[in-house]
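input
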Amino acid sequence: MQLTDVRRVLSSTPAAFRALLASAPDGALAFREAPTAWTPREVICHVVEAEVTDWRPRVEIIVSDSADKRFTPFDREGGARRYAGWSVAALLDELERMRRDNLTYLSGLDLDDRALASTGIHPEFGAVTLGQLLACWAAHDLAHVNQISRALLKHVGPDIGPWRKYFSLLA
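output
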């Protein structure tokens, strides 16, 4: 994945989240497609939390002059606690604000191939490159757009009657 592709995904996904969630009814925002699956609301809490405690802090570790390149483990459930009580509209606003700041930060790094090959130490995977981290950030966004879209589809699925047979995602 090229850095320009990463930037394109990272800059466009907040609008995708807003398009999916801003007018979704409460029932859809609280829908679980499986007992252990996150609701669309929980997903957006997680994505916003990752902007604070995961992506940028890890980039900062990799590009720093520090000899210690170990990442802090990411609490995947932390967003549910940090953003409990926030409205979806406020979460979407926060994601847009933070993403804008994080993209400005990334642009200021003037990353080249050498920088993208720099490594940090992931608590589970060991050495990972900055390029891999940035590609994962974009993939993370896309996976959660897909997850929310799928949950919203499954929320309305029972109401579509015989057309259900045409929706493989509802099988």
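quick obs: The chain has one domain: 3-170.
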